[in-house]
Amino acid sequence: MQQEESFKADSAADAMGGKVFKNLWAYIRDYPKLMMLSISLGTLGSVLQLAPHFMVFLIARDIILAQISAEQIYWYGGICLILVIVSFVSSGGSTYISHMIAANVQKQIRQKISDKLTRVPLGYFTARDSHDFKTMVVDDVEAIEDGVAHLIPETTSAFAAPLILLMVMFYMDWRMALVSIIGLVVAFYMMGKSAAKSTEMTTEFYAAKAKMGRLMTEIASVLPMVKVFNQGDAAISRATSSFAEFNTLIGEWISSNVNMTGWFMLLSSSALLFVLPFGLLLIHIDWIDLSTLIFFLLFSIGLNNLTINIYSITHRIARQANIHTKMDAFFNAEELEIFDDIEPSGKYDIEFKNVGFNYDKNSILSDVSFNVEQGGSLALVGPSGAGKTTIARLLPRFWDADSGSISIGGVDIRHMSSNNLSKQLSFVFQDIFLFSDSIAYNIKMGREIASDEQMIEAAKAAQIHDFIMNLPDGYQSKLNAKINLSGGQKQRICIARAILKDAPILVLDEATAFADPENEAELQIAIGHLIKGKTLIVIAHRLSTIKELDNIAVIESGRVVEFAPHEQLLEQQGRYKKMWDAHIQAKSFKIGTQKTTSESNSGDIS
C-alpha cells in the first residue's frame, strides 16, 4: 500500500513537472532557436565551472608522476582562468538571451489575457474577485518570467552538466563512478517521494496568500462602515484568523522544506564518505592508481555542487504549476459563441422570445418573452432575485441565453459583433463604475472622440457641470480619496457618460439608488435628458418613477407573470396591484412619520 502511494506521489510529481514544461515550451514556441542557444550556453557555463577541479587534477597527476614544473603550473593556471571567464560569459549570455525571451513572453501572455477578456461573457467578471485578476495579470505573469528566463535553461543545464560529468566518470572507472552517486541516488529518491506533498502545500500556500489579499482589500474598502457599526473587533478577528492560517502554512512549509533540505544536503554531500574508503581499498589491491582516486575526490564534490541546483528547481516547478493551473482555468473559460456577423438593421426595437437562462445549473429565467418598440419604454419590476437584472444583462451579452433568442431591430444579437452591439447600447447601472482618472476621462469613455464642448454639454444635461467647475482642476480633477463625491454625484457622472455616447437603446438599472433628497430632483432631470428618443428598459423598485412608461413587466421566479401599462395592471387586481398598494402604504407611512416628527418638533419649540 505504501509502495502504491509512493508510486502515485512520484507520478503526480512527474505529471506536474511535465505539464509545467509543456506550458513553458508553448510560451516560447516563437523563439526555439534563441532558447536552444540560451540552453547551450547555460550548459557550457555549468560544465566549465568544473575547470578548476580539472586543473587541480592535472597538477596532482603530474606531481605524482614527477613531471610537473613551474612553467606547467602557470600554463594550467592560465587555461583555468580562460575557461572560468568563458564559463562566466556563457552563463551571462544564456541569462541575457533567456530574459530577453521572457520579456517578450510576458508581453504576449498579457496580450493573450486581454484578448481572452474580450471573448468571455461580461458576466464572467461579476462572478470573480478583482483581486484575482490583478494577481493573475501582474503577479502571476511576472512569476512566469522565472519559468522562462531561469527554469528552462537552468533545469536543462542542471541535468545536462551532471550527465556529461557522469559519462566522464564512468569512462575513468565505472566502479568509482557508482560509489560516487550512492548518496545522490538516495537523496533524489527521498526528494521524489516528497515532491507531491510539496506541490500540495505550495498550492495551499498560494491559495491562502490570495485569500489574505482579498480579505485585506475587502476590509480596506469597507473600513468606514466597520467603524460606524463598531465592528472593528470582528474585522480584526477575521484578519487575525487569516494571518494565523497563513502563518501556520508557512510554518508547515518551512518545517517540511528544512527537513527535506537537510537530508538532501547531507546525502548529496556524502560522496567522500563512500569515495575515499572505497578508493583506498581499490588502490590497496592495485585496481586504480592515486591519480584516479584524486580525480573522483575532486569531481564527486563537483557533481554534488551541480546537482544541488536540481533541488531548488523542484520548489520553483511547484510554484509554476500553481500559476499554470490558474492560467489554464482562465484560458479554458467558456467564451461567447461566435456567429456569422450580420450588420444591424438600423432599427432599435427589442424582442425577447422564449428566453431561458441557467447559471451554475440553477434556472434563472424561463420562457421570457416581450417586445419593446423602437422609442418605446419598458419597466421590469418584481422581488429581489426574480431575474430583472439578468434580463437586462442578457441584452449586451453578459451571458448568452441557453434557449430562445434576443434581437434588436430583427437581428439576433448573437450575430452582431461586439463593436456593433456596443454602439447600440448604453447602461447606467446601480453599481457605479468609475476609474481613478480624471472626470473628463470617465465621461469621455462614452465617446472618446467627443470634443470638450460636447463633453461639457453632456455634463450640463446630467446636472453635474457646476459641481465639476467648483473642483480645483475642473474636468481634469482626478477621482481619488481627495475628491469626496456623493453617490448621486458619481451616478450623474455615469449619466453624463451615457448622454455623451447617445446610444439609441438605454438600460437603467436602479439609476436613482444612490439619490438623496437633495440630489434626486437633479438626478431625475438628468435622466430626463438621457432618455429622450431612446428605446428604454428600466429596472426600478420605486414604482412611482415608472408608472408613465409604455409597459411594465412583472417578473417572478424568472418568468413574466404580468405585462401591460400601469393602469391596466391596476385593473387586473394581480401581483402588480399588490405591489402598488404596498408602495402607496409605505409612502403614506413615510409622510405620516414626517408629519409626526414635524408636529413633535413644533411642540418642542413652542
How would you portray this structure in words?
The protein has helices at 2-27, 32-48, 51-64, 70-119, 123-126, 130-172, 174-180, 182-221, 223-228, 232-268, 271-284, 290-331, 388-394, 418-423, 439-444, 452-461, 465-469, 487-501, 517-531, 566-571, 575-605; strands at 350-359, 362-372, 377-381, 403-408, 411-412, 425-428, 505-509, 535-539, 551-556, 559-564. The chain is of the alpha/beta class and 606 residues long. It has two domains: 10-331, Up-down Bundle (ABC transporter transmembrane region fold), CATH 1.20.1560.10; 350-575, P-loop containing nucleotide triphosphate hydrolases (Rossmann fold, 3-Layer(aba) Sandwich). It has a six-stranded mixed β-sheet with strand order 6-7-8-3-9-10. Strands 2-1-4-5 form a four-stranded antiparallel β-sheet, with helices on one face. β4 and β5 (411-412) form a beta hairpin. α16 (452-461) packs across α18. It is elongated and about 115 Å long.
Domain module tally: 2
> Over the alpha carbons, how many angstroms does the gyration radius reach?
36 Å
Number-wise, the strands total 10
Overall pLDDT metric: 77
By secondary-structure content and strand pairing, the structural class works out as alpha/beta
Shape, per Cα inertia axes: elongated
Question: What's the CATH H-level homologous superfamily of the largest domain?
Answer: ABC transporter type 1, transmembrane domain
CATH topology of the largest domain: ABC transporter transmembrane region fold
- Number of helical stretches of at least 4 residues: 21
The biggest beta sheet reads:
6 strands, mixed
The CATH architecture of the largest domain can be given as Up-down Bundle
Helix content range of the residues, please? 55-70%
What portion of residues belong to β-strands?
Answer: 5-15%
Low-confidence stretches: 1-15, 225-232, 594-606
Strand line-up of the largest beta sheet: 6-7-8-3-9-10
Terminal-residue CA separation: 90 Å
